[in-house]
Amino acid sequence: MASSTTSNVYIHVIEDVINKVREEFINNGGPGESVLTELQGLWEMKMMQAGAILGPIERSSAPKATPGVTPVHDLNVPYEGTEEYETPTADMLFPPTPLQTPMPTPLPGMAQTPLPGNAQTPLPGTAQTPLPGTADSSLYNIPTGGTPITPNEYSSVNDSGGAPEVKPGPGRPSPYMQPPSPWLNQRPPLDVNVAYVEGREEGERGASHQPMTQDFFMMSAGKRKRDEFASQYPNGGYIPQQDGAGDTISNELKVGQGSNTQHNTTIAGAEMSLQGGRAVSRISQLDGPIPDPYDDVLSTPNIYNYQGVVNEDYNIVNTPAPNDIQAATPAAVTQNDTVDDDEDEPLNEDDDDELDDVDQGEDLNTTHLVLAQFDKVTRTKSRWKCTLKDGIMRINNKDILFNKATGEFEF
Amino acid sequence: MATFELYRRSTIGMCLTETLDEMVSNGILSPELAIQVLVQFDKSMTEALESQVKSKVSIKGHLHTYRFCDNVWTFILQDAQFKSDECQETVSRVKIVACDSKLLTQ
User: Fold this and answer.
1) pLDDT in tens, B57-74
2) CATH for B33
3) Considering just the CA atoms, what is the radius of gyration of chain A in Å?
4) Where's the Transcription initiation factor IIA gamma subunit C-terminal domain (chain B) (predicted)?
5) Ordered DSSP codes for A16-29
6) pLDDT tens readout for residues A155-201
7) CB contact under 8 A, B93 and A262
8) CB contact under 8 A, A403 and B86
9) Which of residues 7-66 of B touch A (CB under 8 A)?
């Protein structure tokens, strides 16, 4: 359980964040105050469940959070233009009257049917919720490449660069002008009442949502090696990774830093030497994806794709292009050399991995973690000293914050 | 201004990330806005740690692994002991991730 001071600091941080983003939520077509309140409520609820803050939370001012906020709208209710979820766009573009007639039809089942196939969380019901503006757009065949629900919104970070765009079909007045995204240009205008489902499917088929979404997750994992988002994936779901040690990479494989952890690059290296080893004999290696909670699905399928595609001679050494995988390089080099010599020699592949594997098998609660900034790290012989500051520690299921810390470690 | 995304891995950061993920999956929130929230969280958390927290901790233990890459130190300690004014904790294994404090002030 958190101490009262830690809890207070957390509560303060939550309120601070919410207050600072309130403007973004309210202005200019943002989701609105209720979504913000919901965010705060859910956040605090999770914190309480994790034991990080002590409830009940006393508030002196500002929006009250109700932990238990109803997250989604009832779908069976015909569309009503509620303020919170309605973008000004939808209102301005589409007069309410024609909306209501065709609306209920595509709404319940049709509109979101293609989604589950594409989006990762297939809740046709809840997926429906987001934007009546969305349904509007689909009605009138706004070729946003599907609804501006999760999958497309991720790509819209780069593509359309803004809130979900609503592009009216030809002849519709649009006071709300936006540059069309590439998605929009691809699609011919379709008749409003026809082929809504097919249109959406076409739009979404080409997009690979899975990696883009998970790339978002990856980004939130905290290690940002590159600033790119999803735009760099050439093929659906396939993230090329380049490891420089001993593997010939065809030039078209660039390192996409969708998965930024060193684990994954090590895996790429391991898997590639595995590939080359096939020419000689199969080398079983125990490296495997070491997923963070948010890395999970991402790493595995990409590696498997990788095996099918990459076909290189492991004997040729390539210069590693990106700097940040050099940490993984030495491990891969070692493995390659061993393979070269004699496959019967102990590969020593377990030497460094044991502890890591043990860690992965444990419940996350027991993974003790300290996140901080360092001022200085020094070493004398085998004696290490460091000064840290502004840190969060998660130890023995407790959260402890510190302003300064000194460490003395014996290597 | 650059922020350390480091604190997103903490309890509070993970709770926020999960909440945002759910809301984006449900389509209530756009990803751009979610990212803005996370960036704001980075700033608020850093600022709160500087101004609101006053405690000092000392850490001792056996260093099992050290790594310095991209200006980030990662230590894995074994049998570590954490001492502060209020309490003392011992753990068999702990990971310390530390970013360079000078990067923020540049």
Assistant:
1) 999 999 999 999 999 999
2) 1.10.287.190
3) 26
4) 60-101
5) HHHHHHHHHHHSTT
6) 444 444 444 444 444 555 544 554 544 454 544 555 566 555 554 44
7) no
8) no
9) 7-38, 40-41, 43-50, 52-66
